[in-house]
Write a sequence for this structure.
């Protein structure tokens, strides 16, 4: 889970304008993806992030602005030899991106920040054989030396 809290306000205005933000959700969630938009102080998002479970809810839409924050998460399983790369993007322009994304919008200026992420799971191919640790080799060598010494005593 990745959590983002950005205050959108004009520093020349009073601080009251920074709680005039709302969130929007666009696109379809990918399998295993989750999100939440909420107030970081008075909402659920902070505790949901700490608990590792997002609600897939936007608690601050245009009809109920506040101090917006956003979170995105992924839940997935990897098979042996696979690796996962999660890319998080935070931008003022979407460009050609057309997947699932969250928006944080200033109600007064309509400035927006877009937050999206992608998950790429790759097969790792052949898994290399584990390399024995030095402690394991020392223990094995000590044991073999002991057996050789014991055999020599028995043969005398």
């Amino acid at each position: 889970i990745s959590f983002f809290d950005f205050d959108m306000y004009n520093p020349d205005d009073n601080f009251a304008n920074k709680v005039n933000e709302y969130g929007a959700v666009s696109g379809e969630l990918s399998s295993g993806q989750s999100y939440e938009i909420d107030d970081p102080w008075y909402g659920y998002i902070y505790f949901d992030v700490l608990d590792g479970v997002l609600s897939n809810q936007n608690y601050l839409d245009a009809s109920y602005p506040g101090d917006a924050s956003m979170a995105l998460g992924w839940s997935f399983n990897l098979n042996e030899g696979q690796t996962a790369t999660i890319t998080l993007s935070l931008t003022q322009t979407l460009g050609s991106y057309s997947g699932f994304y969250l928006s944080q919008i200033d109600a007064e200026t309509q400035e927006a920040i877009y937050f999206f992420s992608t998950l790429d799971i790759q097969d790792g191919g052949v898994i290399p054989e584990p390399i024995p640790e030095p402690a394991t080799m020392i223990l094995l060598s000590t044991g073999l030396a002991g057996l050789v010494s014991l055999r020599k005593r028995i043969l005398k």
